[in-house]
From TrEMBL:
GO molecular function term, any single one: DNA binding
Species assigned in the record: Massilia litorea
Domain HTH lysR-type: residue ranges: 1-58
Keywords: Activator, DNA-binding, Transcription, Transcription regulation
Protein name as it appears in the record: LysR family transcriptional regulator
Length: 310
């Protein structure tokens, strides 16, 4: 198996056809077809379905595509690590952010990266936290912001912030608390709109409920922040989230946030890197920048509800 075969295969999948990939790669289509055939023979599996309208990945092809992307990225990172300067880092860095963090961190970080490290191309990807963990392990991400649930021992971790979860509902909802805070038991008695199990804040909420001898009984599961907002505004239920992802709607008065007590629920936000794949100079620079931007956002109140972790 050769690196060029991996590049060819990824290009074919990305462009959806052999002819378009051949044009982009500046390779004759018969040569591209031959390399693909050799790759499939070596793997003993068909990677692509071919038709008059283009190509689609088989199940085996989808699995191989993920690995091929990770391998090509690590090769590019290795090349960049050898050639780049420690004083003027350059190259590409891919950072993963959970949906509920990107609203607070993404734009300030992009702005700071362009100003501080103009020779670094920062690529941000927004995913549910479970997907980010797998991509960081495989090397498809250089860095990822994750929630510290005590299971991050396999990563190099830099603490960022701690956030309180709030009970959030439509301002005129009948389920809006009449007091300045709401007990966890009262919050859980209402219909809640939450991520699916093992994603985002859900494990924290499940653990807090179990610790208090409570259960989540009335649930709507939504993994998209945008859809979750729409459901809240339609008064389909309330949610338990930090302030940041719903800040615009709370500031505008469309949604109301109430602190949770007895007990409160907090999440710890951490910047993670693989212990097995060395960071390039560029990735190390972005790692430091994430911490610096986080400190700035906490200091000026631009990350609402967040407290810096040391």
């Amino acid at each position: 198996m050769e690196l060029r075969q991996l590049r060819y295969f990824v290009a074919i999948v990305d462009h959806g056809s052999l002819s378009r990939a051949a044009l982009v790669l500046h390779v004759a289509q018969p040569a591209l077809t031959q390399q693909l055939r050799q790759l499939e023979e070596e793997l003993g599996a068909q990677l692509l379905h071919r038709s008059a309208h283009g190509v689609l990945s088989t199940d085996a092809g989808k699995v191989f595509y993920e690995h091929a992307q990770a391998i090509l990225k690590q090769v590019a990172d290795a090349r960049s690590a050898v050639t780049q300067s420690t004083t003027r880092p350059s190259g590409s860095v891919t950072l993963g952010l959970p949906h509920s963090i990107s609203g607070a961190l993404a734009l300030p970080l992009l702005t700071a990266a362009r100003t501080t490290y103009p020779e670094i191309t920062l690529q941000l990807t927004e995913e549910i936290s479970g997907n980010l963990i797998e991509q960081l392990k495989s090397g498809r991400l250089n860095l990822a912001v994750l929630f510290d649930d005590g299971q991050l021992g396999g990563f190099e971790a830099t603490p960022l912030v701690e956030e309180d979860l709030m009970y959030i509902c439509r301002t005129d909802s009948l389920s809006k608390p009449r007091s300045a805070s709401i007990a966890l038991a009262a919050a859980l008695s209402n219909t809640l709109i939450l991520p699916a199990q093992q994603h985002g804040v859900r494990p924290l909420i499940e653990a807090a409920a179990a610790g208090a001898g409570l259960a989540l009984t009335k649930l709507i599961e939504i993994n998209s922040i945008a859809i979750l907002k729409s459901a809240l505004l339609a008064d389909m239920g309330a949610t338990l989230l930090p302030l940041a992802p719903l800040r615009a709607e709370i500031d505008s008065g469309l949604l109301a946030a109430t602190p949770i007590e007895n007990p409160p629920i907090r999440r710890s936000v951490t910047l993670c890197a693989s212990r097995n794949i060395p960071l390039t100079n560029a990735a190390a620079a972005i790692s430091r920048l994430v911490r610096q931007v986080t400190e700035m956002l906490c200091a000026n109140g631009a990350w609402p509800g967040a407290r810096l972790r040391e």
